[in-house]
Amino acid sequence: NPGEIPVKFKLIMPNGKAFATMRKILNEEGSTETIFTMPQTALTGDYTLQLLTGNDVLLNTYDISVEEFMPDRIKVNFNIDKPEYHPADSIRATIQADNLFGTPAADMNYQCELNLSKDVFSSKKFTDYNFSVVNNFSFTTDLHSAKVNEKGSATETFQLPKDIANTGILKGDLMATVFDETGRPVHRYQDFKVYTQPVFIGIKNTDYYVSTRTPVRIGLIAVDKNENTRSAMVQVEVVKKEWHTAIQQNGSSFRYVSQQEDKTISQQNITISGASTIFYFTPQLSGDYEVRIF
Predict the structure, then answer these.
(1) What CA–CA distance (Å, rounded) separates 37 from 263?
(2) What are the tens digits of pLDDT across the range 35-89?
(3) Rounded CA gap, 86 and 116, in Å?
(4) Does the pLDDT of residue 29 top 90, yes or no?
(5) CA 193 – CA 206 distance, rounded (Å)
(6) Phi and psi (nearest 5°) for 164?
(7) Distance of alpha carbon 244 from alpha carbon 257, whole angstroms
């Protein structure tokens, strides 16, 4: 924490001249703020905000773009066929671009971009259960580019992959960008959910610390996307996390490193039914344990 020291904010215009300089004193937490008010006659372009010490030593810079407000020249409507999907489903997206005075914005370039990211399933009915799905998920952006037709419309179809199954809930984002005759983009967005599995398994939250040689009572539940209880056959695995010291070569020298090993203690198939399914496990030794559901 640098403490209360003087600093200067200097805003540099696109022509390289200083627009204004503000002097400030950092507070006890080492932070401060300032405001620059841009007049209507200000130059448009890229400005640079400089942060300097009191004796003009440059600490950092930040680029700011100042532009005139330009209203959209075209109106864009963007829709998808439904709000929820499943693995291997097709997403049908429609674009309609019109000039502001009502005629179709024919033959305009457009892009349509699909992104998927992990989301979290939680239940308002069963708040004491953890439904987190722990696995690796990655998705490469799917980008389509073309022109709208003479009526200003276009249709794009995106195919969801099959291999996203059993990754929990995914949040989907579709962005349509239509470029007017000057190349200026107009963006529209649609979001949706992808349910990659028919049921979601929850593990009831228990005490973090338990005693050895004493049965631990672990509640399990299976619900659908609407939080209704379901039956499901699952495999319950208890893993003990152990650490071992190994010798690792590093060039011509050797060093000791700690490596974690997951040791399976228990593994069994059980049927989850309703909200009363209980799994019992008795830890014989102290250590870190993890319950996994497959």
Answers:
(1) 62
(2) 999 998 888 888 999 999 888 888 889 999 888 777 888 999 999 999 999 999 9
(3) 12
(4) no
(5) 30
(6) -90, 5
(7) 8
Please state, for a pLDDT cut of 90, what percent of the chain lies above it: 64
Average pLDDT over residues 161-182: 92
Strand partners, 123: none
| Mean pLDDT, the chain, integer | 90
What pTM, to 2 d.p., does this model score?
0.71
Name the strand (E) or helix (H) holding 179. strand 169-179
Reading the block at residue 216, the tokens are 């631990």
d(CA 253, CA 245): 16
**C-alpha separations of 47 from 13, 15, 18, 65, 69 in Å:** 5, 9, 10, 6, 17
Distance between CA 294 and CA 290 in Å, rounded?
Answer: 13
The three-class DSSP label of residue 136 is: coil
Phi-psi region of 102 (alpha: psi -120 to 50; beta: other; left: phi over 0): left
- pLDDT at residue 1, as a whole number: 65
Cβ atoms 171, 116 nearer than 8 A: yes
Contact 112, 93 (CB under 8 A): yes
